[in-house]
Structures are given as structure tokens and as C-alpha cells.
Amino acid sequence: MGAIAAHIGATIVPGAVARRSPPAGGVEVLPVRGVASLANADQTQITFLSNKKYRQMLADSSALAVIVAPAYADDVPFYALVHNDPYAAFAALTQLFETRPGTPPGIDASAVVANDALLGKDVCVGPGVVIHSGAAVGDSTELAANVVVESGVRIGERCYLGAGVTLCHAVELGDDVRIQSGSVIGAEGFGYAPLRDADEGSPHWRRIAQLGTVRIGDRVEIGANTTVDRGALDDTRIGNDVIIDNQVQVAHNVRIGSGTAIAGCVGIAGSAIIGRNCNIGGGVGIAGHLSIVDGVSVLGMSLVNRSIGEPGVYASGSGLQEASSWRKSAVRFTQLESLNKRVKQLEQSLKGEQQDD
């Protein structure tokens, strides 16, 4: 446990139970078998507490050690791993116990790599990977099975591309980028010109060639089955340290500022600009051609249909109700306009009576 404490930058503080029976050889040599939740961790595992509402669970925890803030160290029965940011320390701990199988070193025999593709040192290329002409892959990057890297793509160092990821032509990734399985980066944006005089049976839409690309910064994380479309004229850009969840749609020409977090199933329409250090909740819809300033949080399932010019927390929509109550509320919502007219009429009538007096 001593090595783990050093790795996450925590201080070991024995609890009341541990002080009664100190281990032979010292606490530093105690073996740790894994990580578990506060409710289920046993005497060989480490857990954490970052939300004070679960503080009462500490006394009953069987965990060998709990990562906690200094204020809660005395509540831990066995060993407290004291850290000023328990959740960040927990994140570092989980990486020591990650069981994801890696892609074997070298180039799998079934991979197809163009002769002029540039591969850095210690690149891992899995089964069925296709790397097109003119692509460049940075040192220590891992390409899992069936990844497609098209021509002119630039991938930085220490990146990870999960199974089935596609990087379309000329896409650029910075260093330490992780993209999970099934995501497509740099596909054509949804750009079409209507042919207004088209006859029945003839084409009604003309495709607009998407001439930009996608540029992604350093330390960006993108979840599974997310799509980031290439720009129509300018590039689609994602800044450093952005995290994007699964099944998110980022349309053409969108710009996302550094440090922003976007939860699952968000849809961002074309040419929207999202500032730095924003938090976008799950299922949010963001209309096109608007801007959101730095430091904005949008709660889940909201619709952003206008620009946001001031930092803060924003929401839209109605909360959950019992179904019969919701139906009544929905009917009343359709009556708001007539109610508004009636209120105005009453106000005018009252004003007239006051003038008569």
C-alpha cells in the first residue's frame, strides 16, 4: 500500500481499528488486490469518498483503505489515504488496476500499411488495420483492430484508437488523444443545397463538398460511436483537454474550447462555438450558428436555441411528473396564450375602473 500511496500522492493515516492491531512489517507492505465501491470494498481493496453525503458509510466500510479529504480521515476505521482531491487520486489509482488488453507490439500480419506511411517508434498496429498513403502515426500510439487511417492523417504521440475507429483524410490529432470504438472523425458534414426547381424524379439536393478537416488538440478523450464531422470551408476544431462521451454528434465547423466536458447523446449543430471549461449535460441539443461563452454549464436534455453570453448554469424543459399530472400541465401549456390575453383584459378593465374612481 505504501507504493500506491506514493503513486497517488496520499498520506497514510491509521484509523481506530488499525491502531489497535498494527500489521507486522508496517502498513507500507500491506497487499492491495483491487479497487471497489465504498459499499462493497473488502479488506484487500481500496475505495474512495468524494461526496460528503456518503460520509456515514465510512464507519461500516470493510475496505483496507479509503481515499478521503483531510476532514474525514478520523472517520475511517482501517486506513485513510488522505488527499486534498480524493476523486483525482481515485482516478490515478484506477489506472494501476486497469485490465484492458493492449494491442501487441509491432504490426499485425493482417494489417495493410501503405509504403509511404510514417510510423513512429513503438507503434502498435492491430489486426485488420488499414493505414493509407501519406498518413503519419506518432510514437507509442496504439491502433486497435480494424482501425482505418486515411490519407494525410496526422496522429500525435501516445494516442489510442479503439476497434473500428475511422479517421478520414487529413484529420489531425494531437498527443495523448484517446478515441473509443466505432467513432468516426472527419466524415462529411451535413451540407446540401436545395434544388428548388427540381422535377419529381430528379435530384432535389446538391451535395456541398466539405473542404475543411478536423483538428483535435492534446489530451482529448472521445467516447464510443461519436461522430465529428469535417468542416465545410473552415475546420472543425476541438481544443486541448476536452472530454466527449459516447454517441455525440459534432457537426461541421463546430469549435469546442479547451477543458470542456460533453456528456452522452449531445447533438451540436453546424458552426456552433462552445467556449472553454463548459459542461454540457446528456442529451442536450445545441442549435447551429450560435456561441456559448467560457464557463457555462447546461443541464441535461436542455435545448440551447440562442447564444449564451454570460457564464452560469442553464436549463430548459420540464421536470419529471406523474403521468396524469403531466398531461394536465401539457394542456395548460397550450392555454397560456389565451390566459395571457384574459389577464391583459382584466388589467385594462381594472385600470379603467380605477380611473373612473
Describe the structure.
This protein is α/β, with parallel strands linked by helices. The protein folds into four domains: 2-96, Udp-n-acetylmuramoylalanyl-d-glutamate--2,6- Diaminopimelate Ligase, Chain: A, domain 1 (3-Layer(aba) Sandwich), CATH 3.40.1390.10; 106-165, Hexapeptide repeat proteins (UDP N-Acetylglucosamine Acyltransferase, domain 1); 183-317, Hexapeptide repeat proteins (UDP N-Acetylglucosamine Acyltransferase, domain 1, 3 Solenoid), CATH 2.160.10.10; 330-356. Strands 6-9-12-15-18-23-26-29-32-35-37 form an eleven-stranded parallel sheet, with no helix packed on it. The longest helix is centred in the last third of the chain and has 21 residues, at 336-356. It is flat.
Q: How are the secondary structure elements laid out?
A:
Elements: H1 2-8, E1 11-14, H2 16-20, E2 34-35, E3 45-48, E4 65-68, E5 79-82, H3 86-96, E6 106-107, E7 112-113, E8 118-119, E9 124-125, E10 130-131, E11 136-137, E12 142-143, E13 148-149, E14 154-155, E15 160-161, E16 166-167, E17 172-173, E18 178-179, E19 184-187, E20 192-194, E21 205-207, E22 214-216, E23 221-222, E24 227-229, E25 236-238, E26 243-244, E27 249-250, E28 255-256, E29 261-262, E30 267-268, E31 273-274, E32 279-280, E33 285-286, E34 291-292, E35 296-298, E36 303-304, E37 312-314, H4 323-334, H5 336-356
Parallel strand pairs: 2-3, 3-4, 4-5, 6-9, 7-10, 8-11, 9-12, 10-13, 11-14, 12-15, 13-16, 15-18, 16-19, 17-22, 18-23, 19-24, 22-25, 23-26, 24-27, 25-28, 26-29, 27-30, 28-31, 29-32, 30-33, 31-34, 32-35, 33-36, 35-37
Antiparallel strand pairs: 1-5, 20-21
